[in-house]
Structure formats: structure tokens, C-alpha cells
Amino acid sequence: MTRTGQISPCHHPRWWALLVIGLCLGYAIVTVAVLPVWSLVPIAGAWLGLGWLLRWGEPPNPRPPVRVWPWSLVPLCLWGVYVYLAESFGIVEIGAIFFHLQAGIAEHGGSGRLVAAVLYTLTMLALLAAFTWLARRDHRWRLADRLLALVLVASNPLFYSMGQRSAAIVTDDGAWLDRRYVAPTVEQAPAEPPNLLLLYLESIERTYADRERFGDAYAFLDALGRRGHVFEGVRQLENTGWTMAGMIASQCGTPLMPAGLLHDNQFEPLGRVVPGIRCLGDVLDEQGYRLSFLGGASTEFAGKGIFYEDHGVDTVMGRAELEPRLEDPEYVNDWGLFDDSLYDFTVEEIRRLEAEDAGPWGVINLSITGHAPNGYPAQACLKRQGEFDGEDILYSVECSAWLAFDLIDRLEHEGLLENTLVVIASDHLTMRVSAWEQLIAGERDNTFMLLGEGIEAGARTQREAASIDLFPTILEAMGFSIEDHRAGLGASLLSAEPTLVEQHGLADLSARMHEETALQQRLWEGLVPDGREQENGQAAPRQVLEAPGNGAEEAAPAMQ
């Protein structure tokens, strides 16, 4: 028998309930606030101490238990979703969630997260059970439940972003960004257009170049940068922070604003991706380029293949096309091919295009080595760098940098890069990885460098820019003259034209993006159901080109 008053968890379920809530609360705070893992213990301990002091679950003046279902259960579930996303990706973008749901997530390589999702689900069930038990046993929890539900909803960043968007619909004309959009227009093409090799290095941001924080992980990209022109200060705008968004931003000059309700069939994946604008592939296709895309992952994921096929790319190859060509069919990862295999196929594709001798070519390549959370280092790196512990992202960063360096060397050695512009860029800043605390300790920027004939070796440009500025910069680096040195929302970093980030800053641009509806309609023109365009007969918004320093806060159009 247990003595009266002795605390025994087996005989006092309230301590189990309080422990579950305390651990979940501690984990949520540690995850969202990016605190050391050990911080969970004092947070949970403080919660248990507060529960003991206030006698939660065993009030001094108890009332009969009431079988109720707390209002806070749903808000708690939504907070669980947010914490899961924050733990998985670091920065949670609502646009990414909406886009992937509509574009399709078939054949994704995130199977490793399924175990985490199951654990999160079980933990949430335990949390909901604990909260419900306390609400039924302690009338003070029942009285506070509705207020707590409101606080949970109001404080959830998921609701905050959606609330901003909803408020913007009634407070703004929704065309600020669209008025600054410049359709890409080639005014003059070079006499001998160069080939283009565009290498996207998954998540390999330029922040890794800081040797004090990350050692030599970025050293091979630094070595490549000394051969060409390096751009510093390429920041990440909202709606450009995942792979498809990063590629569309850098090739189309605009953030990827999801189709949302503009999608004419909400229950099927998108049949087209940003059909309303012209992108790099469209421009080069019009100039007679033969274009290819190669990536080790499935082209069905997130509408990747649809985007490239829809925008001028002749040959689109992903896992389904390349895996049967592997010498060892077992040499694949969750997403698809390792990058040493992918780069072998890239060399073969460039050889094929060169052998055709039918005009300029362009090859776009997307790597996988640096993919969060741990990366997928290739066998070639394991032989060079030694054993991989399965967690250290810096190992994968070094691997990705070396593979890119080796690919460029191989192509140069074979003479396959004559009259070729090589562009090396990260698709976006990395998501949550083992070096996350070091990464977010200061300003972060994306990798962007140019190599090739006519590119000054060792040149460095420091400007406040974004990935939307890569589109016009690449065109001008290839020798194309474009209208006002602009394309999409971007400005060429090879010109004196000011970028939107220089003029308005990231915070203002993010706020404007929450208010924008006209640019969203432009991106998805053709998917808008009949009769929704130009509602109420409103005329299309005029274009605004801003002069440096004018701020151009033009008067809003008169209401009609």
C-alpha cells in the first residue's frame, strides 16, 4: 500500500498528463526558438513545478469531472503541424505547402521523414489525451479552455500568414508587384550566342563560404569562384525558398506564388506550371537553343517536368529516364540518382549536343547531394573524404562542391565548354540541418557565380539582390541585350539598374507579396476559370519602372 499523500505516478494520472504536456511544450519551444536540446529539461521541469504549485489536475476545491471535448484540441493539432514543419525545414513557408499540395508530391524522396511523422502523430495523440484529461478533471482548465484556444490560433504562424493574406484582399489593390513586372524582351542577340550550362547545387548557399563557421566545406566552390565572377548578397525572398520556387525565381524573375483558388480543378495536380509568363527556356528556345534538363530525382515531383516541358526545354530527364541507364541499378538513394552518376550523364548529354553541331545548346542540371537534413554524398566522395556519419551536413556540402568542381574540370579537359557560359547557383537557402544554429547566426545569401569566356576571373560583386535577379543577369552575361536591363521583377547585376531589394528591402517586399493578387493571376493565366479575369471590368494594371532612389510609392488607382 502507498502511504496517503505520497506522490506516485502510477496512482496519480495527473503527473503523467502534466509530464506529457511539459515535454511537448519544451520540445516546441526548443524547436521554434532554436534552443539547445538540453533546454527541454528545465522547461519541462518548470512546467511540472508550476503544476505542483497550482495543483493542476487536483484542485483544492474540486468539482465533479465533466465529460467535455476541449476547444483547444484543434488549435493544438495545428501547432503540432507547425512544429513538425519547423523541425523539418527550419523556415516554414505557407506558399510551399500550398504549391506542393496542388502540384503533386508523388515520388518524393522524403521517406525518411515518414518515421518522424508517425512519432509526431503518436506524440500529438498523447498530448491531446493529456489535455483532455486535465480539462475534464480540473474546472480551472475548462474555464480557461476557450481563451487558450484563441491564443493558440492567434499565435500560430500558419494562421498569421493566412490572416495577412486575407486582410490584404480588402486593404490593397493587389498589383504593386505586377506593376513592376517587365516581360523579358531581347532587343539584340550576340553574333555567336554562347552555350549555357546552368548547375543548381541543392541547398549549397554561399553562407558556407565563411571558414570561421564552416571550415573548408565550401573550398572547392571558392576555387571555382576565383576563375570567374562571384556575386555576394543574393538574398532569399519569400516564395523562393524551395526547389521549384528557387528555379522559377532564377529562370523567370518572379517568386512562385501558388495557384491557390485560381487553379480550375482543386482536386487534381496542376497540368501547367506558371503558364502566364516567359522564362529563360522560352527566351532561349526562341533564339534557336536546344535545351535539356537533367536531375536525379523524379520529374513528377512538384510539377518539375511540367514546368520545363512547358517552357521551351526539349529533353527532360529525371529518375525514370536515367535510372535504367545506371551500371549498378542498386546505386540510388531515396530521391533517385547520386550526383556522381547524374554528372556522368550530364557529360554524356553535352557530348551529344556538341556532336549534333546544330546551334547553341543549354543544359540545366539539378543536384541532390546537399539536400536537407543530412545530404546524399556520392560514393566518389566517400572514397575521397572517408566515412560519412549520416548527419554532418558539412560533409555533404564539401562533397557537392567537389563534385561540381570535378564536373567543370572534366568538361574543360574535353573541350566541351568552349563558348559556354557556366552558371553555378544554389536553388535556395538550406533548410534545417546539423549546422542550423551556425547558419542562422548571421545574414545568409545564395551561391551565384559565372564562368566562361569574357567573364573576368576573380571579379566579385556585392549587391543586395535576390534570386529573381539571376534571370536578367544570365541573359546579359550570355550577350543578349534586354529592355532596361530587366526581366520579370529582376534587374541585371551586371548593370547599374537597382534591384527591388536595394530599393525596398526584404521585409517590405515580403509584406507586398502577402498583398499581391495581380502577379499571381499573371503567373497562372490560362488556369483561371472563365469570367474571373478582369472582374468588374477593371483594366490591367500599368507597369511601373522605378528610378534609383525614388521609392516610387505611386498613388493607388482610383476605386471603380
Automatic annotation (TrEMBL):
Bias type Low complexity, positions: 546-560
Cellular component, GO, one term: plasma membrane
Localization of this protein: Cell membrane
Segments for region (Disordered): 531-560
Sulfatase N-terminal domain: residues covered: 194-479
Topology in membrane: Multi-pass membrane protein
Pfam families: Sulfatase
Record-annotated membrane-spanning stretches: 15-34, 114-135
Molecular function via GO: hydrolase activity; transferase activity
Domain of life of the source: Bacteria
InterPro entries xref list: Alkaline_phosphatase_core_sf (IPR017850), OpgB/LTA_synthase_biosynth (IPR050448), Sulfatase_N (IPR000917)
Keyword vocabulary terms for this entry: Cell membrane, Hydrolase, Membrane, Transferase, Transmembrane, Transmembrane helix
Main localization, broad class: membrane
The name this protein goes by in its record: Sulfatase-like hydrolase/transferase
Record lineage: Bacteria, Pseudomonadati, Pseudomonadota, Gammaproteobacteria, Oceanospirillales
